[in-house]
């Protein structure tokens, strides 16, 4: 097998599934957050969820970060990369933002196509297929699938130019706490993105234990990886349930399950014993040896696949919850306090274009999209219904939240300013 050596096409998803009713969505979100608080979790998540009966579609990709739609940050990230063609999948409102983005911002010679989401089928596989059809993918070509809720993931070169692209049809870029925040035990503030890590992974080659979260970016050969396992992995990726996906697939493919028996036997014979070499006691949902996991994944998928770690916190910094939105709003506001009105330029290499969009396009968008007519009031209302105990904007529109002046926000600003200074966009 010999794939093309680099990824030049991207499916950028600004689509997300919807609950049948707002009451149902709020019950789930509030219940999840209450359980996390009761369990003493680090990452508390009041999820931003869509519902079919919302007057204004609560689509997180449209939320403003310092007056600029979240989706514009994600668009800027792919424009900075070596990718040449981008399929944007989303709603009617997403298209309205995209149209003004393309009118206002230099797209650097890239081709961007809008693909409407299917309101009656918002499953991941539908989004992938719709986006893939717009890109005319070849059999030996990986595409980057990326949810559009990663506002500061601008350094994509390691993903799209990875040497393992040639010989693998799926690459799992795992989020490792130890790789991203190497000194978190001695310097707690250095872990400026708080998440719950449900998986454990032993890298035998390095002799190291990793606390792991599921990937947020997926280089994938859509012609080689079966659609049902893509959907299963997506549905079970949260809260340590990924093992369910493998069992579900194995039940449908008994021949592959026979090939998996040595992998399973190795896991049950060795993992718990090896884990105790690193930690005597641990609470986790699923554990794996990296080499054994890669072997099992390739066997079950019936195609070459691999998994690896990265050291960039922006990979794990998605915006799933109000707390995540607040982290980024505080980050950009803090950068303005530290560096002045154009502080965004110091922490994001696409900052100049984003500020131009805010100046030129946002006055028009405020007339088109109800969410933007009074975004401060809109998000304050969401905070109230989610029982957050405070609101981010006061009556005069000033932003003041508990995390604006914390050591973690200051550390995030320092980290991103250093990365932005070093960053070289792709030609």
Structure description:
The model has no long low-confidence stretch (mean pLDDT 93). The longest helix is centred in the middle third of the chain and has 25 residues, at 254-278. Strands 7-6-1-8-12 form a 5-stranded mixed beta sheet, sandwiched between helices. A hairpin with a 2-residue loop joins strand 4 and strand 5 (68-69). The radius of gyration is 21 Å and the shape is globular. The protein has 2 domains: 1-153 and 344-427, no CATH class; 170-215 and 224-316, no CATH class. The protein is built from 17 helices and 14 strands. The protein has helices at residues 22-38, 70-79, 92-104, 124-135, 157-160, 177-180, 227-235, 242-252, 254-278, 290-301, 322-339, 344-347, 351-360, 362-368, 370-373, 375-385, 407-422; strands spanning 9-14, 18-19, 50-51, 64-65, 68-69, 85-90, 111-116, 143-147, 170-176, 199-203, 208-213, 218-220, 286-289, 305-309. Helix 9 (254-278) packs antiparallel against helix 10 and helix 11 (322-339) crosses helix 17 (407-422). It is of the alpha/beta class and 427 residues long. It is 44% helix and 14% strand.
Which range best describes the helical content: under 10%, 10-25%, 25-40%, 40-55%, 55-70% or over 70%?
40-55%
Number of domains: 2
What spatial form do the alpha-carbon principal axes imply? Answer: globular
What does the main sheet amount to? 5 strands, mixed
- What portion of the residues fall into strands of 2 or more residues? 5-15%
Strand order of the largest sheet: 7-6-1-8-12
Give me the count of strands.
14
Task: Indicate the structural class.
Answer: alpha/beta
Mean pLDDT figure: 93
Low-pLDDT residue intervals, each spanning 5 or more residues: none
Instruction: Give the CA-CA distance, first to last residue.
Output: 28 Å
The tally of helices reads: 17
Provide the gyration radius in Å: 21 Å
